[in-house]
Amino acid sequence: MEQNSLIRNEAYVNGRWVKATSNKTFDVTNPATGEVIASVTDMSREDVRQAIDAAEAAWPAYRATTAKQRANLMRNWFNLMLEHKEELARLMTLECGKVLQESRGEVDYGASFIEWFAEEAKRSYGDVIPAFSRDRRLVVIKQSVGVAAAITPWNFPLAMITRKVGPALAAGSTVVVKPPSETPLTALAISYLAEKAGFPKGVYNTVTSSNSSDIGKELCQNPKIRKLSFTGSTPVGKILMEQSASTLKKLSLELGGNAPFIVFDDADIAAAVKGAILSKFRNNGQTCVCVNRILVQDKVYDAFLEQFSEAVAALKVGNGLDEGVQVGPLINQKGLEKVKQHVEDALAKGARVTTGGKALEGLFYQPTVLADATPDMLIAREEVFGPVAPVFRFSTEQEAVQLANDTEYGLASYFYSKDVARCWRVAEALEYGMVGINEGMISTEVAPFGGIKESGFGREGSKYGMDYFMEIKYMCFGGIE
């Protein structure tokens, strides 16, 4: 930690590093060791209001910059992230526990959004509409929405920020970022790099606090915030939506999931096992697009279960900074207890453990496979958010689709099949915002990320991501003879 030049303990507001007016701090803990790695300023609602005021004051000048000027600032920021990739990755692993190789991948992934939207800034095209009379001209332009707030989760401390602020900054909006109390250090580190990149004061602000409820309420209810983007649980998303109603704030909500992973009897089983491992155990199962239910057709159920269990048993658990580790700790005790509860419930209702099934020392839990899972189990209805994979059995394609869609969530889904016709049928029938077909890793900056039903609304990444941070203005020119 002492050798990491990116460590910052204060919030970044209006181009300055500031303490909370109360001088309060909160501790950041390494989930792999339980050690306190830093103490960070603990801001109040009044402190955050000052950051919002700074962002609003900076907005007129920033939105007046050209798309190319904004793109150059973002390109500087992108280059600095890659230049400090190793420091960012190690910092990320220390505070959230994910293995170092995954953290390095997240730096690349997170930085890619800044690069992408730096380029998209110059492509926010409008329209000229054929007029309804000869003396008029009809034009549509896009303008920045205003001050944008981003409330981000701990499981992707860097990428969930850049995926939100990238389009906001590209569109000409100023931003206020509220990272989670579990992982503020990565957020502050990239704020430091944003400062070095040359963003004018007030354009980029990061507020840190242990009082998420109070700060969230301020970001929702403050009329100076025109746009709020949130990634987190569905219950919290509903609260934020309700709190934002008084100001009719524009919202993007990327909420919970219950991702199915379907293996049909014509699938490449080895490929399906590999895809399931990648999608289930990335970040120890603690991602919103992680597989939560594995559905396998009767004919290949036993073969898949055997190969999958063998692969899961071979995963190495440990501190994410150690060589060869593939699965790190749970983020906190609450997360560990949830995993235990889901496993105990499944076993009580007839599931059997084919590998794993036990808690280890600290916040670690064995990568686990549960055979003979059924829809009445808790793990079939809720995100386990941990290294537990329940395997369900199905008979027909129709049954698989019905089981997959039998949830209020609709974020990510996956299936494996060699039948092209089936691939089209199932992909179109799955009620999810994203579908991986013979692929377990689907996230990329060039494609839209988001869900349907109670997994939220709005899209991040891709050309569609800019639209959620812009307003459409129609202009009618009259008197043209």
Automatic annotation (TrEMBL):
Named from the GO MF annotations, one term is: succinate-semialdehyde dehydrogenase (NAD+) activity
Q: Which domain of life is it from?
A: Bacteria
Keywords (alphabetical) are: Oxidoreductase
Q: Does the keyword Nucleotide-binding apply?
A: no
Provide the Gene Ontology terms for cellular component. Answer: cytosol
UniProt record, GO biological process: gamma-aminobutyric acid catabolic process
Q: Give the InterPro entries listed for this entry.
A: Ald_DH/histidinol_DH, Ald_DH_C, Ald_DH_CS_CYS, Ald_DH_CS_GLU, Ald_DH_N, Aldehyde_DH_dom, Aldehyde_DH_Superfamily, Succ_semiAld_DH
- Residue ranges of domain Aldehyde dehydrogenase in the record: 17-474
Q: Does the keyword Oxidoreductase apply?
A: yes
Catalytic residues in the record = 254
Question: Entry's Pfam families?
Answer: Aldedh (PF00171)
Q: Which family does it belong to?
A: Belongs to the aldehyde dehydrogenase family.
UniProt-recorded name of the protein: NAD-dependent succinate-semialdehyde dehydrogenase
- Name its species: Pontibacter qinzhouensis
